[in-house]
Amino acid sequence: MEEEEQVNRSQTAAPDSHAADTAEPTSAEPERRARAALTRLVEPGDAVIGRWLTRVSAATLIEAIRERTVPGYLDLDDARLAGYRARLPDANPDVDLERVRSRGGRFIIPGDTEWPSQLDDLGDGRPIGLWVRGTGSLRLLALRSVAVVGARACTAYGAHVAGELAAQLAERGWVVVSGAAYGIDAAAHRGALAVGGTTLGVLACGVDVAYPQGNSELISRIAEQGLLLSELPPGEHPNRFRFVLRNRVIAALTRGTVVVEAALRSGALSTARRARDLNRHTMGVAGPVTSELSAGVHALIRSGGATLVTDAAEIGELIGAIGDDLAPRRSGPVLPRDLLEPAIARVLEAVPATADGAPIERLVRRSGLPPDEVLQRLYELGSLGFVERCGAHWRLVRGA
C-alpha cells in the first residue's frame, strides 16, 4: 500500500511548468488508474466499452469484469467477457503510468483540462484515454490543427508537396498532425519541424515505441518540439487494425484533413472518410493523372468528398471558416492575461509590442526558457489569439 501511495503521489506531482495546466484533482486518480488499466484490456474504439462508460465508472467496470458480475443491462456476451478477463493479468496501471511519466509523458482522460473536447464527437468510440508524451498542452495545440496524410510508398512529388504544405501551414500558426509513418506522414512532420513549427504524431503503438524504426529520430524530435499521443499503453506494438483505428483520432482531433497522395485502397482515405463523417473539412491535392498514387485522391475529389487545394492559403480559407467552437478568433484573447499559467505569460511578456515582432531566438533570450518550450508556448498563445506568426517572427495580435 505504501508503494502504491508513492506511485500515486508521483503522478500528481508537477514535473515541470506545464503541470499547472495538466494537473487534475486527486479525486480523479482512481478513474485515471482504472482507465489506464482498460487500455490494456480492450482495443481502441471499442464501442461496447464506450457505451458502458457512459453508465458506470471505469473502476466499477474493471471490478465487474474481474468478478464476473457485469449487470445484465450492459449486454456483455460470454466470449467478449472472457477476452477481457484473459488480459487482466497484464493490466498494471501503476507500472504503466510510471513508465510513461519517466519518458516525459502522462495519461489524460475525459474531464481533464487538457482533454480535447472535439474527440467526444466520436461518441461511444471515443478514446478511453490518451497516453501523451511531450510538454505542450494537447487541448490548446489541437485548437488550430490540420491533418496532412497520404501514402507510405509516396512519390518524390508527394513528399515534396506534403513537406511544402506542412511548412506553409506551420508558418501560418497551424499545428500539423499526422501518423509518423513513412512517406507522406514523415514528409509532413519534417516540413513543420524544418520551419520551427509544432507537430503532433498520432501513433498506432505505445508512445515509448519508435515505429517504424527508420523514423526513430523523427519521432524523438516530434516529442521534443510537439507531442506524441496514442490510445495504446506503453510498450504496445502496432498491427494493421490499429492503424485504421488510429485514423479516426487524427480525423476527430483536427479541424480538417488534407490527403496528399493515396491509391484507391489507401488507408489515408479512411482518415478522409472519417473526417467527412465528423463534419470536418476534407481536402485533397491533385497529382499526375498517370499516377496510381493519385487515383484515390482524384476519386475523392470527383465524388465531392473532398475540396481541391493547392497551398496552405487555400487550406486556411476552409478550416479557418469553420467557426468559433474549436478555436477562438485571432482578433482577441479568449482568456485574460492574468489567467495564463506562469510559463505562458512569461513568453507572452517577451513578445515585443512592435509590428515586426521578434524571431524565436530573441524570445528565448528574453524569456530565459528552453527553445522547444518557448516554441510550444507560442503556438499555445496563437491558439488563444494572443500572438501570430509572421514568417520567422512572432508578433502580438492587435488588440490582444
Automatic annotation (TrEMBL):
It comes from the Bacteria. InterPro entries: DprA, DrpA_SLOG. Residues 107-317 form the Smf/DprA SLOG domain. Residues 1-33 are annotated as: Disordered. Pfam families: DNA_processg_A. Coiled coil: none annotated. One of its GO terms (biological process) is DNA-mediated transformation. PANTHER family: PROTEIN SMF (PTHR43022). Belongs to the DprA/Smf family. This is DNA processing protein.
